[in-house]
Prior knowledge:
Layout: H1 2-22, E1 31-39, E2 48-56, E3 59-65, E4 75-79, E5 84-87, E6 89-94, E7 99-100, E8 103-104, H2 111-123, E9 126-131, H3 138-147, E10 155-158, H4 182-194, E11 200-203, H5 216-228, E12 233-236, H6 240-249, E13 253-254, H7 265-274, E14 277-278, H8 283-291, H9 310-316, H10 319-326, H11 334-351, H12 370-382, H13 386-401, E15 417-420, E16 434-439, E17 442-443
Amino acid sequence: MRRMTRRWSLAAGVAALAAGIATAPAAHAETTILSGFTLIDGTGAAPRPGMVMVIDDGRIIWLGKAGAVPKKAGATAINLTGKYVMPGLIDLHVHIGTVRDLDQQAANFTTDNVEKDLKTYASYGVTTVQSMGTDGDAIFAIRDAQRTGRPTMARVYTAGQGLVFKGGYGGVPGINHPIATAEEARREVDAQVAKHVDFIKLWLDDELHSMPKMPPELSKTIIDEGHARGMRVLAHVFYLEDAKRLVAQGIDGFVHSVRDQPIDAGLIAAMKAHGTWQVAPTLSREEAVHAFGAPNPITRDPFFRQSISPAAVAGLESPERERKMASNPNWSKLPAFDRMAKVNFLKEVRAGIPYGFGTDAGPPGRVPGYSEHWELAGMVEAGLTPSQAIEAATSRAARWLRNPDIGTLAQGKWADLIVLDADPTKDILNTRRIAAVYVAGNKVPSVRP
């Protein structure tokens, strides 16, 4: 009897809520009722069929099971029977605004180009991105405007201009300001904090021994100054020895997997002791850097072509570009780095290291939107279950961002969600079967080049 009463009260609650909506003041009249779907809430819980969600001014104000939901004036009712609803994807490693077609340069970083990228991400179900250190100052006005209203495109977090060693690897010329001394490092960290970045990013790499690497005293200065200013610090890393050194220096997270050799018990123990995150494994990045050195069926996939320009597709399919990529003296090593990234990421997951989700999408050939679904598939290939991959890209990523309003679907949260035609917990490729995307309750239009 108690169960029957509870079912009746839930159904009655939805009906009463919808009735109340019809007479709500105009400022609160934008209401959508989604019904009949199977919920994947982002927590790792089992999918729940027959669900109803009520969205009011961009937030979920009711979520639960019910029978029929009455249509009421002032509320838009959408029947999603047979559909699956999951949180929007959160990518913790992207680069936005600097690429047109396959050309990357500082001059491309405009408000229009940034917003184009954010709309593209949203059209693929990526409702939040963390931009990793190659942003011009126009990013701050875009981000701040989002946080005072209801965005209609992907939400953005930014590291502003990440720190690059002079003559070393990383950044975009004309945007980043290379450093050579500890004093320059402190000044650059302070400059980014003054711009109200969301975190500090540094590059520590020598591009397979072809460029100078940031010395240990500079990475320590950046980390110490960032922490002194109340900021978390993230690092681009490649080598195991560098990862160990950065953890000892207090780095908060890595935005790539270690790729030169298997990680060991020492690194895992140190990461656990320091609370270091594997913020972004970027498995799709490792595939993308060698995927287009020969004809690849990916470029003919309609889902891939959904937003990429015809010129970019033509460039990726160009025999001349394929030959140039394949002529890289390190070309033969790249697939092994791809495999090592997967092996090391799975070790971290199994060891209980906190992890998120990120792709390094944005630079030429690493296509915004498509890359995130490629990353999900790569996580499953590495050994995660589809549910674990989805959790990484939703609730775990939101936990890194320290934003409790996104990443899961529950009462009080923003309605950042994807409507799918098939169950992604059964087959991760079903995340590509997108029927609709909402950011803060705003339905996202499809994007075409």
